[in-house]
Amino acid sequence: MANFYTDNGDLAYQFRHPLMQKIVQLKEQGFTDKEKFDYAPHDVEDALDSYEKVMEIIGDICANTIAPNAEEADHEGPTLHDGRVAYARATAENHRLLTQAGLYGISLPRQYGGLNFSMVAAVMASEIVSRADAGFSNIWGLQDCAETIREYASEEVKDEFLPRINKGDTCSMDLTEPDAGSDLQAVMLKATYDEARGLWLLNGVKRFITNGDAQIKLVLARSEEGTTDGRGLSYFVHDRAWGGVRVRRIENKLGIRSSPTCELTFTNAPAKLIGERRLGLIKYTMSLMNGARLGVGAQSVGLSEAAYREALKYANERIQFGKPIIQFPAVYEMLATIKAKLQASRALLYETARFVDLSKEQKQYHRLADCYTPLLKLMAGEYANQNAYDSLQIHGGSGFMKEYPIERIYRDARIATIYEGTSQLQVIAAIKGVTTGLFLSQIKAYEARPVPAEHEHLKEILHQMSNEYEQTVNLLQNAPSEQLDLHARRLVEMAGHLIMSHLLLYDAQQDKSFALSAEYFTFRAQSWNREHACFIHHFKPNYYQNVSLQNQTSSD
């Protein structure tokens, strides 16, 4: 039988990374759970073995149920009945099987019914599910809301809600509103404390809420009268069984159609406060968003994997001019590009996940996780779109038809650069990695690693790229802030290309299966960075202003 874990050696490789021993030891805290839970590991090797066994179970369900269900789930989609959402038959089956297998809440502590898995393992599960059906992965991935409850809620709220995740209760994070999308400081859904009931009551509207009819809802709301900015916002948990929330409509979307995206009305909906008042946006939502962006990174890599598999299969099967089209240079170059971007994205995904796992122990990892997360979301999301585009192109006219999965994958990929913060917002978050020198210092650390003789030429190229990147950053050190903002994306992408090249170079030394992608991606990254550097060095600050004036004159 097919298996989306065992058929992909790149995944098992991630569990062999040297930092995994430290990550497992940190997560297991002396392996004391073995005295209380018969399924808890006794040592690092036992824990890693558990990771692999669970990934095999997820890989089996994904390959043999979720992936075959994807077309039906996309076509049927969720439906709305009297203010409540019903999943498509196939989506409900996916959810039921994963719940029966005990695969929800895998990162939660065992006292709440979880498996206490590291972020690396949780991210890998998300990647595998996303390869099978990116729409369903939104329902699966929102279990990350439990991490916010675990970290910030009271013990009473933790005990009330967390054990339900493993039993299949779904989650949503209710942040955006009709007038508050990227600008969450503008959230106006009102929270009023009811002294008699000892609960908060929520009133207002939320829009674009993924899995909006979930049983457990995390809601950003304005708790402080007279405020208009982020300091007046607090964070709440709402149980659907308490009533007061109604689904007004399900959005009719381009992609990820198997997951319901809803507009909601809150009418005196009871809720409980998470953490402290006023910290809803500046602390709790930001923490939740970082986890969500890591999840979109995993989703993007899963989509890239699915696109690559479809392109490779079609290119081998499609005969033109007497031979498979994979034998034509125009096609095999596209396949090489897709694979290199896929493996580069995956290298960045798991490097970021490792930093997140270790961030609770050391500040240096916290800083790295903080900058790598938006970098990952930017690069992996953009590459998922590019890879889906190229895969559909390899299919030719067939790719435009709904008979082929790439049509759905192409539509699903489009959201990866939009939700949980657009690519443009990821640049704003990641640019501090450029301006503080954090990206450069990490690049230097990668550069200090020894390489075998056969990879010296790649190391030399990366050294030259590093110098070019440093010179370009220095050029803008004293530039007006508007000019830095204008070039921010180019600078962040230059750093990303360097980091991913170094990660692939390291992987190639451990496993030869990465060697071709390491070489190809480095050569491509060199050309991409030269293009960015050339533009920045020769850019005239008033260019866009002149173009705007010219356009205005033309319109007049």
Model description:
There is one protein chain. This protein is α+β, with helices and mostly antiparallel strands. The chain has helices at 9-14, 19-28, 44-76, 89-100, 119-132, 134-141, 145-152, 155-166, 280-317, 329-358, 363-395, 405-413, 423-435, 438-447, 456-475, 481-510, 515-538, 543-555; strands at 79-81, 84-86, 171-174, 190-194, 199-210, 216-222, 233-239, 245-250, 261-274, 319-320, 323-324. The protein folds into 3 domains: 9-169, Butyryl-Coa Dehydrogenase, subunit A, domain 1, CATH 1.10.540; 172-278, Butyryl-CoA Dehydrogenase, subunit A, domain 2, CATH 2.40.110.10; 283-307 and 343-385 and 411-539, Acyl-CoA dehydrogenase, C-terminal domain (Four Helix Bundle (Hemerythrin (Met), subunit A), Up-down Bundle), CATH 1.20.120.470. It has 18 helices and 11 strands. A hairpin with a 2-residue loop joins strand 1 and strand 2 (84-86).
